[in-house]
Design a protein that fits this description.
- There is one protein chain.
- The longest helix is centred in the middle third of the chain and has 24 residues.
- It is built from 27 helices and eight strands.
- Helices cover 52% and strands 7% of the residues.
- The protein is mostly helical.
- The chain is globular and about 80 Å long.
Amino acid sequence: MSKRTIDSFFRPAASAASVPVPESVSPSDDDADESEVGVAKKARTYNFREDWLREFSWLRYCKQSSSMNCEYCSSYPRTAGNTKFADSVYDATKEAFQHLGTETGWLEKTVAMGADGAAVNLGHKGGVIALLQAEAGAFIVPFHCMPHRLELAMLSVQRKIPMVDHVYNLLNMVWKTYHFSSKSMRELRALGEELGVRVNVPGSVSGTRWLPHVNRALQTLLKPGGKDKHLQNPGQFTAVYYHMEHLTASSTNADIAGRSRKVKKMMEDGSFVGFCHFLADLFDAISKFSFLLQRNDVILPQAVNGIENLLATIEAMSVRCKPGGRLAELLADLQAQRRQQEGEGETHLLYKFQGITIQGEAAGLGKEGLSMASTPKLQQAVRATIDCTLLHLKQRFSSLLYEESTSASAKAVKSFKIFSHDSWPEQRELTDYGAEELDFLLDHFSSVLTRNGCDFCLAREEFQSMKTFIIRNYMDKSYHALWGMMVTKLPFCSDYKNILHLVHIMLVLPVSSAICERGFSAQKRIKSDVRGSLHVDTVEDLIRISMEGPSLQEFDAKEAVQTWFSQGKRSRRPNYKGWPSEPPSGTQEDLL
């Protein structure tokens, strides 16, 4: 389940909202489910339809007869009330899931709730999770969306490390220059044509989007030009630098001239350019993990393995540059420039990136091997960024790592590591492996396991047998392939039916709420400014088709077109005779 406040995008300012609403635009009791907010301001009336501004809930469950994980999507009904209060959200969620049918007993089988970090959702005292635990049981596991956690960790790094904040400010100033001025964007494109550079639109790093958009903004700025992608070729960096130089000298707007002067000065600093390349490598690794978490089919073992690999990758960056990364390419190019100029007998060495002369610690970057003595500013910033990133990632993902926790829910999540078969010990040590964690899981989820017919003694025996069977036959399988086979195929789903209850719980843990966020994106695409009169039910149907429907390649439009032509209230085409069941006989020449 995901929660987002979107009233601010549609409601007027507080001063305007306080103006009394004329009775002529006040909603009647008969039209309460499709109410409108009327605001009188400057002798005009503004009406804002709110009935389509929905929240989205997803129910994730295991279905043995088909795929490993299935999902059901639902939007909150129009009777949801104020979604800023937990009781309204909780009541609306239950009402939405009632469309599944009362026979499903979803509340009795619920084991976890995933949401963003808003207090209305995950507040331990008055949040939705507290209401759910009070009604369904204290064993319900609250899951803070992992892509949100990743974003929050890097925002903390931005606040703590000045150099990271400088990079964010640079990218934001570049985006602001071209986003709010079509004239500046035209000038940048014209300059790019003269340089032979294909200019891309600079990306934004602000807002509520997740981390890959920061990586895209950095990659766009540092993108090399030319077919060979050589760092000495003019690129996006070159075009932006020369245009900022032009704005500094020609702009009559003091804000634009001052912003351009600051951007130009930052782009000439060698240590800053080097740090941008390091940060591009760092965000590239983090973005790959973020993309993994945004998949609909991501499961807990994948997330745990992903965060451990990410931490190891970041720690390795403190020892050496990422092989084949942006910073390694920059250092190799600057060192090649130094050797070339020394071979030509030059005494005053110049270092360039995409044709722009960089200063400061550029000479230190051109030496063989980075050292604190030659590039103290860059080395200090890199070391501080790595340490701060590791610290905040471990804090945000402590419930998935091997750190002690007093929370029963966090301990339960960590205990599921016993089903990560690639981390099992050798066979002679496998007998006692996971016994303590298994006992804790059986005790923590005892009520829901008992309701669903799990025998605890048989579960312990089956776990021993299943470990031996998997380590002998299926250690080469991925998490999805292994557990998909175990929970759906005979005889495995029958022989290990008791221990597989815990596997089912592990598979449906809501690691990410990205699918809910995609619902908001689909709603924004469908309910646009030019389609403002769509009915509420039509919007919901279109969102469901966009999120859960087949791809264009798999969709057969024959039935839909025939229904549209034949079942309308009035005739669509008077001469319509129906969809042909067979292609017409005869050759192409006969038809002509």
